[in-house]
Specification:
Layout: E1 2-9, H1 13-21, E2 33-41, E3 45-54, E4 57-68, E5 72-79, E6 82-95, E7 98-109, H2 112-139
Antiparallel strand pairs: 1-7, 2-3, 3-4, 4-5, 5-6, 6-7
Helix pairs in contact: 1-2
């Protein structure tokens, strides 16, 4: 199945990217995600194991995702019950406080039995994934913009008495 979704979100692109990249928090807001473990993370890549448990659907998979914060993250399957599982997140800042998020996913289970047993349920999960991230972002408190640093008050000018010849 090929899926393409996009949304305009009243949150900074960095906030959405950080939410998408933080797979360890998925169980807090994705009802189908029973567990998520970060396997590796650095500036260029994040790899995670995800446990899917939803209405009798049960399987695990691992993705390895190259990233470029805050604009892009690819999704590549390392292991799991899929023949194909590739996608990407693209984020475009529209203003400092708003962005466009585009999500693409192309997947196919590796067996006809798995497709028959889980296909429609996983289709529903994939189809609502972008909405779940947008809703989560909108419920997260926004950080206030960083205030300009306050400097200590400048010392008051002092009047120095100039000594000179006394008036005569």
């Amino acid at each position: 199945m090929q899926l393409r979704r996009s949304a305009l979100v009243a949150r900074p692109a960095t906030a959405l990217f950080d939410l998408i990249e933080a797979a360890e928090h998925y169980p807090q807001f994705l009802p189908w995600c029973a567990g998520a473990t970060i396997v590796a993370r650095d500036e260029q890549i994040v790899s995670a194991d995800l446990q899917v448990r939803w209405h009798g659907l049960k399987f695990d998979f691992r993705t390895r995702n190259p990233k470029r914060r805050p604009e892009f993250m690819a999704i590549h399957l390392e292991r799991g019950p899929f023949r194909r599982f590739d996608g990407q997140w693209q984020l475009t800042a529209l203003t400092p406080d708003a962005c466009k998020v585009a999500f693409e996913l192309d997947y196919q289970f590796d067996s006809a039995l798995m497709t028959r047993l889980s296909g429609s349920m996983f289709d529903r999960i994939a189809d609502t994934l972008l909405d779940a991230f947008v809703q989560r972002a909108l419920t997260m408190p926004q950080l206030a913009p960083a205030a300009a640093p306050t400097l200590p008050p400048a010392p008051a000018p002092t009047s120095a008495a100039v000594e000179g010849p006394a008036p005569g």
